[in-house]
Design a protein that fits this description.
The chain is mostly helical. Helix content is 59%, strand content 5%. The protein has one domain: Helicase, Ruva Protein, domain 3 (Orthogonal Bundle), CATH 1.10.8. It has helices spanning 2-10, 17-32, 41-61, 79-83, and strands at 14-15, 69-70. The longest helix has 21 residues, at 41-61. The model has no long low-confidence stretch (mean pLDDT 87).
Length: 86
Amino acid sequence: MLIAKSIAKGKDYVIAEDALRPLQDYFTLIQSRNDPNSGNGRLARNLVEDAILNQSKRLLNDPEAQMNVLERGDFNLTENKFSGKK
């Protein structure tokens, strides 16, 4: 989780409070499966970069939203992501 926060901060973003728990749950799940990417900063970087892309799409529909906040929905933590499917 700290890596994801650091990556977001380095890109001038913050992760919304309501996104922190689902992200932590996702990282814990991946680690519990002994996934080869579980301790890899690339996993966190990919999640943050995907969230930034999703956030840019969201901002097109909501120009009043804060531009530096990555919301829970931006991370797209669906059941498929939790099950290992894309």
